[in-house]
Structure formats: structure tokens, C-alpha cells
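Review box. Two proteins, two foldings.
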Amino acid sequence: MHFTQLILTNLGLIIAAMSLLWLVSIRVKDASIVDLCWGLGFVIVAWATAFQTGASDLRAIMLLALTTLWGLRLSGYLLWRNYGKGEDKRYQEMRDKHGGRFWWVSFFTVFLLQGLLMWFISLVVQSGMFHAGKLGIGFFGWLGFAVWCVGFFFESVGDFQMARFKARPDTEGEVMDRGLWRYTRHPNYFGDFCIWWGLFLLAATAQSWWTIGSPLLMSFLLLKVSGVSMLESDIEDRRPKYAQYKRETNAFFPWFPADGA
């Protein structure tokens, strides 16, 4: 099998899966399900790649396992967090804006777009697994595994700490500034950042340096599009204390609070 055949097959699989998910969203009148399946989509791509390549090499097995663990945790967490809460306000606003056209507009601007992003970002996993047997893991590969572990810790622990904070009845209008959130305003996004740079380093020594666009795109999305920028666009209106929190705490990369406390 040629690599081009592999990635085009996976692209077709993603488009088919996202099209099916879109049809389900029309049925249930909730486009938010696309977010719940974001991590799961990468798991599907990784397993489809393993099925086509055999995935018998240690690097391929590691890439498959790490992607699966990350994707299932993320989708499971989002499903638990959003269950029963209805459609996300972003999609509600789109639905109000486009009216009767939303059903097909959502296919291109939400489902197909996310599918294409998923395919491009997952190229690092697809290439790393395809070329896995060509070279040993080496220093950069094990460094990538270590970076991935740091990322998984920040993302999973950060989500857990925020969930506990929101579950308390006395936090209305308050700001989460404890635990990992004391050192970065977005430990979960920083964790996701490390996850994908870790996977890149693990895959890169298997003739996959060219896939650097994958973690770069994910970093751009986390920092400028669907991550930090979007979340902080109106948060001070809902949580006035956030302004002081911003002055004292790094937005992304963890560091000690500015007040030295």
C-alpha cells in the first residue's frame, strides 16, 4: 500500500463518518454532537490506519495507544459534561442566523470543516504509523512520549479540577484559580498542545518530520480560534474577577502567579 492510498482512504472514511454524524444532528436538532465526537474521530483514524498497515511495530502501537487514550478520554469527558444541556450556544446562534438553511450550512461549515481539520491534524499519526518500522524510536521519540504524558496530565487533571469547581454551589461568578489553574489560565488547552507536539516528536523520527503542520495547526486553533481567544472573548462579562486573574496568571504556558504568592 502507498502512503497516498492510505491517507485518501482515511479521508473518505472521515467524510463518510462526518456525513453520518451530520444526518444524526439533523434528526436530534443538535449540532453540538460534532464536538463530542472530535476526539473519537481521531481514534477511528488511528485504528483505520492500524488495520491497513498492520501496526506491529512499537512506534505504531504507541501512536495507536496514545491517540486512543487521548481521544476516548476527551470524548467521554465532553459527553459527561454536556449530557442533557442541549445545543451549545455557538450553534444556536448559527441556527438563528441561517434559519431554514442551517441544515445544509452546518454540513459544510461545521461537520465537513471539522472532518478536514481532523484529517490534516491526524496526518502525524497516520504517517508515523505507516513509516513506523523504518527507524528506531530514539531520543526524540521517547522525548515525544514524555511530552505527551505531560500533556495528558495537564488536560485530564485540569478538566477534573474545573469539573469539581463548577459542581460546587458557591462558585457562581467566581474564578477557578487553584490547582493547575493557578499556573495557567488554560491547563487543558496547554495539555492538548503538548499531546500533539508529543505525538509529532514520536512520529517524526519515522520519516514524518514533514507533518509538523499538524501540531502547528492544532496550536493555532488552541491559541487563536476555538481555544483561548474564543473562551476569553466574553468571560469577563460573566466573571468580573477574571480581569485580575488575567493580570496574575499566564494565559497558556504554566508559570508562577505574577504576585509571587
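Next protein.
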Amino acid sequence: MLAEINFGKTAQDYATHRAGFPPVLMDRLRPFNIGIANQTILDIGTGTGTLARLFALQGCRVSAIDPAPELLDQARLLDQEAGVTIDYTVGQSECTGLRENKQFDVVAAGQCWHWFDAGRACREIERLLKPGGKILITHFDWLPLDGNLVAKTEELILQHNPAWHMGGGSGVYPQWFKDLGNAGFRNLESFSLEMPVAYSHDAWRGRIRASAGISASLAPDQVQAFDTAHQEMLEKYFPEDPLMVPHRLWALIGEAPLRSA
């Protein structure tokens, strides 16, 4: 396991280079009755608020929590630029500290479900959802394919941080159907969409610095050593600029459990 993950250590790179979810996500969620104006939405593990802001821009009333106050400070600055207001709270997704039960139409978790204790998080989400409310788990992941930029970058991360274990993914998470099903969530559906994302060399380096395997877990001198090696690798093998980085947008949606009184 990665030790002492702290995304607060990389708050500046996180805010600058982790652009978050593409707006097309809102189009894909609309048929599920998610992201509709005036809905009450809680975004757990919000980071710098990239998913929360998309909902706020749709006219939703959005609250969000994250354990890293440094990320929430960046989120508030980005909200000012976007012209939206979100109610942020420092807290854990398994125990939010929010007192009122059954207050949200949607609880969303973007790019973060793997950090949670799934059973405890599901119980807290059920407590907070209105009857018939929706849970959304969504990811927007880079795709390592044989010999591509992402695969080479992941190889370099492992050279500098052998404890990192999050590479080699496909951007699809079938195990989370079981998490939600075991907790009683109903009518589970998912969708997936591949798309490229353009990054300059500097932006891709910043994006990788802002990941769990680099600035969130390594010492500053180790981060610098990695970043220098990353720059050299990009210049040697991938000189084109911008870089077109393949990604997958994936989402899992479910309805709140039915419980007898």
C-alpha cells in the first residue's frame, strides 16, 4: 500500500493540472435524472471540486466534502472563477458529520471510490439520500496501452515509487457493482466512453505530479527527481506537443435501497 497519501501536498498542481471530468458527463447523466436544475447533490471526496462544479453549473444545489482542507481552498478559488457557489466541508465520506438524514437527491463520488471503506460509505450515503435518490460513482482515467505515453509514464512512476499499485487499469470497475449490490442499492446501470485529452508536456508532467504515486506520497526531492526523468522521457520518446492522451469516462448509477420501516 502507498503510505501516508496526502493530496493536500499537491494542491497547487492538483488545481492547475487535474482538469477533472469533461462536460459531456452531464449529457450522459441526464437520462438517469442526475444533474437536473435544483437537485440537491452531495459530492464526496470532492478534491478541488471538479465534479461538484459541473453540477453547480447545471443549476444544482451542491454540497461537497473532502478530508484535505488545502484542496477545498483551491476548490473555492476555482468556484469564484466559474461563478458558482458550493458548500464545502472538511470530512470523511464514511462519516460526513452532516446531521440531517434523507436530504440529497444524488450523492456522487468522482475519482475516489477506491479510497473508501465501501460498506461504511454505502451506509452513510443511504442515510443521506432521499427515498428514490441516486448514487453515482464515476471515473475519468488515463488508459495505458502497449507502448503508449501512459504506459511509459506508469513504468517511470514505478521506478521512482515501487509501492505504487494503481497502474495498468482499464478505466472500468466491475467490482463496484458488488459494493453497491451488497449494500442494497437497486437498478444498477453503467456507461463508458473513450476520448482523447490534449496535454502540453508541462501539463502532463503537472498532471502526473498531482497523482497518488508522486507528490501525494513522495518527499519533495523524490518528486523533483521523478519530474526531471519524466521530462527527459517525454522529450526523447514523445516530442509532439500537445500530447493526445487516451482516457475513459465511466459511471455507475444506482437507486437508494428500499428498507422497511
